[in-house]
């Protein structure tokens, strides 16, 4: 075996990148036409389709007549497809999205003859810690990848171990996924070139044959490849053509000694391009919204709807997964490519929203029309604050909310709508034009309750729930008669009942439903809030669990219940960026702006349920880089940055929202959370794990190892934990004295040819002006949790879920005279530091309906989990939904023990 070589013909197909999807698909169809023709003409030819089924689906949509040709080649083992739907960026989507990607790719491959059982991950920009467990729990024993492997791996394979202990043998493509191409440059000299390459890399291979990956981006191999290799093969160095799976299963040792645990983010053997974590902020935010909306839709459809909307949910998932491609959500494509990704993510969210709203409409039909339904997507009970539109009470009364049991709770009015919607004067002959605005009974989004006609005056009174009957034909007749009797000027007014937006506390069962009404009550009998109230002074907000005070410079001093103080939170630091979509690069003579020229503080709300203040700081930021890209321009732009600071009753964290209109190019803006003492480690949550990292990253290759790291749901350092709304990047700065979170990275090129922190261009130097986000309002949302006990003691796993997942609300549609229905529980999950990734409706091969629940232990110790609900049996399944245990009878509840960092999926029936 030592003197042999195995060539794996393949291509790597970026579905969209420096060209949009449809342009690349045109090339894809031509390339796969060539592959099929070559394979059918030469029995020795094998081909590996990049590990992603999207390429096959995209091809068959244009060439449906070739479906049987593909099935034949897959069945013969000469065409390797799957197991993924798409080659994703693992850090910029949720762990659940990664699982669905594998499920949908595997299912699509099964329909065409079967998936390649290799976790092929050739070009991702690093790899998550839990990928070995995801693969292993889908029955996949092997992986193959390139980027991110640490320098400790000396051979061409290693055992990759997840935090839970799961392992997969991993083929290390240490020279990239195109290492065989240099050998093929001169076809009649392949034998010599292969010998030189084998000798040069001999220490890597040991006794195993050389793996020559014969392919690259967006090109089919030469149809003569197999003939060239037959000619080059000799008794001294035998050459075999194989799929990647054949090489791993037939030609190499399964036992390897090197072990790597956790995520792969080393720069030592390949660029991992960390700047993609923060470029094109809008795509990261849209991804988070789409994933969250689908998750809520699945939970509502499974728990509260009689209708199976799986086709719509599958459509939504497919569009999200397409968008996770490592050149899609990362934002490293052209403007038109990124616009298409944004539109696709919007479609996914829209499809899911329709399912969610339809599912909620079913129980809302049992709630009276003057009441509201609240649904809790989280599997534990909570008191949620919801905003609803209500009538303003009379001056001598106030508003309270009441539930089915008759208990009353205070309501906080937060805004009032105008009552005069229009006031106009026109000639009597024009009154018919006014009536055209009315659609049956609707006018200006409300319903006509009644109207008044007097000489020269027409007044419409609108209401959300009108009391009496209304006949448009009678109105038309009366207006025509009045106009004829009183020619000349008329005054037409449209008035609506006085309405306001109210904040209401609602206790909602685990995964369940609750309903309430808001009615006028006696001021002297206002009930106390069930939670410690949120209070406010001119520059301080508090709720008994957390306090925040504004300093003179607009930063915040945040104090936790245990006395932990985080001072200077929210400091903004803006610097230049002369990099590209792949890598940040500071100008050599950078100018950092961190002090505002003006600061104002405005108190917006003073409780008792929510207190808010608006801190506005004005900065002079350079408008762009100068002609010398190592220097920022001397021309500055005054930029006000709003920071909305919010404390809610019952929450142990402070919510922050930043917003500004970006008028500067070529810059990076970061929000700092200073730490009381320097730290040398951080931890961030995402993709079924909390990963610990230090102050540095392993360097090598040709990329400077800036220690910016990914975070999805929270990041923690010392006593500071920051809850996040979407995936992004952070860094421990100033020697571990502060946590910096990137709010914006504005650049103007996909790649730059000469990059100060990267030797090799990542792509062509193509302009991407949209990545500057000029003229865009940049908004970010966080929450700050101060706790000396760190993220585990603060229960950050649960807090992050509560921060990101608002309760859902729908207006009741039953007659207003109906009583409020009682609260109803769904599925309850009890367990500290346990993440519930998914609750959805499933059916097995016998079409037996069930509810699938996926759990992940987010801790390095075992977790006991209790589950209760309306089910009588439980079955454990793998990540592809295949049973791994027999159904176990239960009586509405059971306990299970999750090992450290274990992912477990159960089906309840």
Provide a descriptive summary of the structure in words.
21% of the residues lie in helices and 33% in strands. The protein is built from 16 helices and 50 strands.
Radius of gyration from CA coordinates: 31 Å
Helical residue percent band: 10-25%
**Mean of residue pLDDT?**
95
Sum up the overall morphology in one term. Answer: globular
What is the percentage of strand-forming residues?
25-35%
How far the N terminus sits from the C terminus, by CA atoms, comes to 52 Å
Biggest sheet features: 9 strands, antiparallel
Q: Which class best fits the helix and strand makeup?
A: alpha+beta
Spans of 5+ residues with little confidence (pLDDT < 50)? none
The beta-strand count equals 50
SS summary, helix count:
16
For the largest beta sheet, what order do the strands appear in spatially?
29-30-31-32-41-38-37-34-35
What does this entry show, briefly?
The protein is of the alpha+beta class and 909 residues long. The chain is built from 16 helices and 50 strands.
Pick out its properties.
5-stranded mixed beta sheet, 9-stranded antiparallel beta sheet, alpha+beta
List the helices and strands and how they pair.
Layout: E1 5-9, H1 21-41, E2 47-48, H2 54-62, H3 67-75, E3 79-80, H4 95-110, E4 119-121, H5 131-136, E5 142-145, E6 157-161, E7 167-172, H6 190-200, H7 202-205, E8 210-214, H8 225-232, E9 239-241, H9 244-250, E10 259-261, H10 281-304, H11 310-323, H12 335-364, E11 371-375, E12 382-391, E13 397-403, E14 408-410, E15 412-416, E16 420-427, H13 431-435, E17 442-443, E18 446-454, E19 457-463, H14 472-485, E20 489-496, E21 499-508, E22 513-522, E23 535-536, E24 540-542, E25 546-550, E26 556-560, E27 565-569, E28 571-576, E29 598-606, E30 610-622, E31 636-648, E32 654-661, E33 667-674, E34 682-686, E35 689-693, E36 709-711, E37 714-717, E38 720-724, E39 728-733, E40 738-746, E41 777-786, H15 790-793, H16 796-804, E42 808-811, E43 828-830, E44 834-843, E45 849-857, E46 863-868, E47 873-877, E48 888-889, E49 893-898, E50 903-908
Parallel strand pairs: 1-8, 1-9, 2-3, 4-5, 5-7, 6-10, 19-20
Antiparallel strand pairs: 6-7, 11-22, 11-42, 12-21, 13-14, 13-22, 15-21, 16-20, 17-18, 18-19, 23-24, 24-25, 25-26, 26-27, 28-33, 29-30, 30-31, 31-32, 32-41, 33-40, 34-35, 34-37, 36-39, 37-38, 38-41, 39-40, 43-46, 44-45, 45-50, 46-49, 47-48, 47-50
Helix pairs in contact: 1-2, 4-11, 10-11, 10-12, 11-12
């Amino acid at each position: 075996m030592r003197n042999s070589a195995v060539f794996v013909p393949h291509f790597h197909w970026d579905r969209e990148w420096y060209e949009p999807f449809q342009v690349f698909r045109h090339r894809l169809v031509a390339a796969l036409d060539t592959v099929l023709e070559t394979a059918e003409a030469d029995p020795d030819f094998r081909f590996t389709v990049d590990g992603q089924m999207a390429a096959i689906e995209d091809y068959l949509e244009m060439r449906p007549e070739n479906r049987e040709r593909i099935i034949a080649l897959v069945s013969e083992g000469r065409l390797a497809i799957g197991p993924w739907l798409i080659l994703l960026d693992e850090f910029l989507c949720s762990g659940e999205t990664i699982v669905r990607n594998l499920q949908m790719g595997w299912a699509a491959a099964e329909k065409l003859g079967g998936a390649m059982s290799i976790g092929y991950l050739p070009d991702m920009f690093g790899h998550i810690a839990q990928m070995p467990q995801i693969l292993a729990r889908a029955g996949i024993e092997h992986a193959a990848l390139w980027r991110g492997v640490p320098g400790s791996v000396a051979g061409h394979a290693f055992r990759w171990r997840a935090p839970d202990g799961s392992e997969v043998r991993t083929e290390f493509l240490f020279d990239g996924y195109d290492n065989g191409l240099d050998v093929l440059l001169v076809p009649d000299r392949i034998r010599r070139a292969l010998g030189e390459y084998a000798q040069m890399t001999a220490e890597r291979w040991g006794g195993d044959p050389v793996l020559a990956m014969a392919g690259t981006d967006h090109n089919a191999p030469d149809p003569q490849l197999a003939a060239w290799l037959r000619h080059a093969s000799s008794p001294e160095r035998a050459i075999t053509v194989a799929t990647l799976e054949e090489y791993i299963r037939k030609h190499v040792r399964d036992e390897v000694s090197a072990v790597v645990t956790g995520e792969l983010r080393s720069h030592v053997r390949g660029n991992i391009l960390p700047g993609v974590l923060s470029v094109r902020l809008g795509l990261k935010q849209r991804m988070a919204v789409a994933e969250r909306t689908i998750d809520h839709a699945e939970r509502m459809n499974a728990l509260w709807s009689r209708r199976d909307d799986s086709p719509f949910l599958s459509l939504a998932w497919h569009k999200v997964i397409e968008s996770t491609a490592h050149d899609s959500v990362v934002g490293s494509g052209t403007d038109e490519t990124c616009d298409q990704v944004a539109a696709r993510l919007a479609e996914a969210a829209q499809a899911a929203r329709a399912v969610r709203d339809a599912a909620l409409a079913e129980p809302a039909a049992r709630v009276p029309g003057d009441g509201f339904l609240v649904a809790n997507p989280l599997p534990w009970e909570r008191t949620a604050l919801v905003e609803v539109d209500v009538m303003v009470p009379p001056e001598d009364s106030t508003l309270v909310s009441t539930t089915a049991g008759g208990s009353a709770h205070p309501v906080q009015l937060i805004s009032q709508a105008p009552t005069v919607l229009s006031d106009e004067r026109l000639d009597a002959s024009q009154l018919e034009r006014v009536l055209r605005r009315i659609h049956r009974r609707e006018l200006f989004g409300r319903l006509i309750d009644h109207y008044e006609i007097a000489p020269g005056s027409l007044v419409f009174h609108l209401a959300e729930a009108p009391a009496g009957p209304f006949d448009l034909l009678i109105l038309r007749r009366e207006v025509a008669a009045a106009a004829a009797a009183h020619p000349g000027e008329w005054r037409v007014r449209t008035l609506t009942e006085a309405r306001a937006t109210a904040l209401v506390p609602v206790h909602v069962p685990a995964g369940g439903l609750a309903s309430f009404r808001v009615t006028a009550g006696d001021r002297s009998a206002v009930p106390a809030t069930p939670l410690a109230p949120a209070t406010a002074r001119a520059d301080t907000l508090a709720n008994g669990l957390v306090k925040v005070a504004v300093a003179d410079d607009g930063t915040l001093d945040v104090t936790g219940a245990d006395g932990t103080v985080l001072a200077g939170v929210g400091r903004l630091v803006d610097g230049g960026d002369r990099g590209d979509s792949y890598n940040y690069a500071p100008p050599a003579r950078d100018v950092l702006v961190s002090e505002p020229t003006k600061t104002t503080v405005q108190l917006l709300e003073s409780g008792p349920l929510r207190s808010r203040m608006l801190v506005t700081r004005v900065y002079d930021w350079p408008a762009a880089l100068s002609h010398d890209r190592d220097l920022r321009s001397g021309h500055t732009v005054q930029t006000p940055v709003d920071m909305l600071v919010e404390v809610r009753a019952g929450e142990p964290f402070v919510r922050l929202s930043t917003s500004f209109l970006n008028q500067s190019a070529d810059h990076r803006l970061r929000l700092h959370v200073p730490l009381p003492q320097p730290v040398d480690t951080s931890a961030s949550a995402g993709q079924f794990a909390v990963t610990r990292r230090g102050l540095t990253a392993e360097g090598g290759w040709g990329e400077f190892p800036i220690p910016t790291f990914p975070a999805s749901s929270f990041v923690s350092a010392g006593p500071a934990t920051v809850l996040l709304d979407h995936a992004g990047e952070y860094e421990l700065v100033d020697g571990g004295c502060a946590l910096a979170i990137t709010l914006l990275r504005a650049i103007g090129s996909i790649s730059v040819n000469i990059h100060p922190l990267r030797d090799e261009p990542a792509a062509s130097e193509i302009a991407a002006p949209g990545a500057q986000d000029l003229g865009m309002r940049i908004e970010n949302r966080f929450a700050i949790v101060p706790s000396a006990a760190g993220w585990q003691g603060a229960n950050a796993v649960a807090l992050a879920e509560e921060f990101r997942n608002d309760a859902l609300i729908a207006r009741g549609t039953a007659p207003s005279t109906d009583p409020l229905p009682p609260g109803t529980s769904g599925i309850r999950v009890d367990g500290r530091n346990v993440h519930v990734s998914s609750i959805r409706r499933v059916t097995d091969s016998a079409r037996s309906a069930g509810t699938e629940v996926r759990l992940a232990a987010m801790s390095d110790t075992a977790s006991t989990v209790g589950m209760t609900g309306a089910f009588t049996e439980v079955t454990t399944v793998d990540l592809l939904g295949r049973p791994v245990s027999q159904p176990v009878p239960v009586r509405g509840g059971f306990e299970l023990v999750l090992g450290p960092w274990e992912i477990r999926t159960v089906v309840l029936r």
